Structures
1.
Amino acid sequence: MPSLRNIFSQRHRFVHIFVKSMLVLPVPVLSDNYAYVLVDEDSKEGVVVDPVEPHKVLPVIGQKGITLNGVLTTHHHHDHAGGNTKLLQEKPNVTVWGGDDRIPQLTHRVKDQEVFRIGRLEVTALYTVCHTRGSVSYYVVDPSTNDKAVFTGDTLFIGGCGRFFEGDAKQMYNSLHNVLGRLPKDTKVYCGHEYTKSNLRFAAHVEPNNSVIKDKLAWCETHECTVPSTIGDEFEYNPFLRLSSPEIRKAVGLDAQADPIEVLARLRAMKDNFK
């Protein structure tokens, strides 16, 4: 008859094997972009997010033994969607999700708040328009562990936000504050570019007395890859989520009664010209 210690050990090993979590693998691509491999470790089913350089992403999939289900495309710009055609030449018959008909090889145009699954992972497509009129962020929840992640493309960066190429400040405010900003604070943020140092330098310029920004900048000096942050973190140091800060309002020449959308508009204009 096995001892209680052996029974406990066997049960512990079983639980350790059974309870696996969502896995996110950042893949640096081009000069400063990120693609991501998103995996349900239990089923080994996965997708790639914005795989602009398939020759860098596909080896990761092969090494991990992942069954590729498809591509999550955040928006149509070439540095995000430009690898779709080549990837499908290597991996035909996979789904390409996105919110814009300009996305190469698009097979499924998602609706806002549409939910689908990758293995057991629950993915919700969130329209976060402004950078482009078809920008989508993908919010992912692992129901077994309650791990949460969001892939934000060029809408929300660590310490910053995207340019208003096809939208305006009202749309970006909605995307940042009413959509992404309302996600759970522990949601991990995986953005489309490694812009963190330059974003935080601007943040320190408009809010010089924010010690959290200074600490994060110092942290960046020893970390080449700065993803992920969290939604909660962003409210501590991202000026585009801190529009009520007296220092930021002073920096853009507005008072406490000013419309936060106007604060955001002026802040983005300042960032566009910041060196």
2.
Amino acid sequence: MPEAILELKKLMHAIHPLTEPEWEEFAGLWKPFSARRKEVLTRAGETEKYLYFVIEGVQRVYYFDEQNREATLVFTYAPSFGGVLDALLLQQPSRYFYETLTPSAFLRAPIHELLPVISSKPNLAFIIRQGLAQALSGVLERLVELQCYSSEEKFRQLLKRSPHILQLVPHKYLANYLGIEATNFSKLINKVRI
């Protein structure tokens, strides 16, 4: 998996350069991991133990309530980080599930090894802060979309942000992510010029 670690290095260095010793220590924490399609990696009620770096496949974080309602919150795919980040960083039980939608390959690092390294390396701490700031920005944008946009506007924004998503993610999950009935989602695909 040498090319996977190079993808991780490329992503990290695009945010902020690391010294070679910093990179070596950080890179040593990551181990290959794979999962089958529809495998739940983190369950609600569990504490997230790993930060994932997605090499291939598509995953989602979703919420499931006592009334059998489901809400897809986010999709992850290469090259990006994955997992239930709030549960990971706060080390508290997750309120969400992290599931593979397709067979998936990752690098993953245990949080109990990752946090001390990040704490002792200012460049790594900066990269993590930048990543969290970007994630928060995305969440705030998504809240605006969910509260203010029509179904068609939400669909257009999704395609603008991730034009390849229709080929990656089954449409029923995209409909759920947008808060649209599956039949209305099908109509949108036929109506909106892609």
3.
Amino acid sequence: MNMQTSQTRSRAGLAAALRVSISRLSRRMRAEGGHSLSATQIGALGAVARHDALTPGELAAHEKVQPPSMTRTIARLEADGLLTRSPHPTDRRQVVLSLTAAGDKLLKEERRRKEAWLAQRLAELTPEEQSILRQAAPILERLSHG
């Protein structure tokens, strides 16, 4: 048994190996986006898309950032024509953020590029490796919600 196999047998070793591998994969996928937005800006657009419409405070909470940071992110996305603000339906002190058509298009293109890159990489794997990843996908999803 090689050193790497013995290290991944312990829970701590598996955690370390997954952390490194997932971090590298995440960096590679971010690099495949092909746009000039930061990970925070893309995350904010994605959260607004998933939740249809959010207040700035709700968006900051979803993205686990401080409201002043999110205010800067929102301002940039709004200036780029990717988000719009509209009056809150019940609270006149609040605004609701929504994606513009350009923001929706950018997000869809971002996802398409990343998925195409990953599909190409998956095609390079053996059928057995692809099967293992199919089984691991729901487990990784469950870990991400913990």
